[in-house]
Specification:
The protein has about 90 residues and is an all-alpha fold. Helices cover about 90% and strands about 0% of the residues. Helix 1 packs antiparallel against helix 2. The two termini are about 30 Å apart. Heterohexamer. Belongs to the small Tim family. It is a peripheral membrane protein.
Length: about 90
């Protein structure tokens, strides 16, 4: 039985890692698409200085926003879990 619990825990860990990887890939794809549309008016062989600055600022803002939303969502989930645990303890 202990082996089954270990295997389940290992599977859950692997699934969480795959979900995290998929989320990171999705974020990178969205950030690339959004910043490219915003900053690159005429694609060419190289980025000029203003395009480089725009891309850098766009990516920084996107990542800051993503982190803020992720933290806020995580905090909300934690509060809801705590509320459910408190409710269950009262029952």
């Amino acid at each position: 039985m202990a082996d089954a619990n270990y295997d389940n825990g290992e599977v859950i860990t692997q699934v969480r890692q795959q979900i995290a990887l998929a989320n990171a890939q999705e974020m990178l794809s969205k950030m690339t698409e959004k910043c490219f549309r915003k900053c690159i008016s005429r694609p060419g062989k190289a980025l000029d200085g203003s395009e480089q600055r725009c891309i850098t600022q766009c990516m920084d803002r996107f990542l800051d926003t993503w982190n803020l939303v992720s933290r806020t969502y995580g905090n909300r989930l934690e509060r809801e879990q705590n509320a459910m645990q408190s409710e269950n303890a009262l029952n």
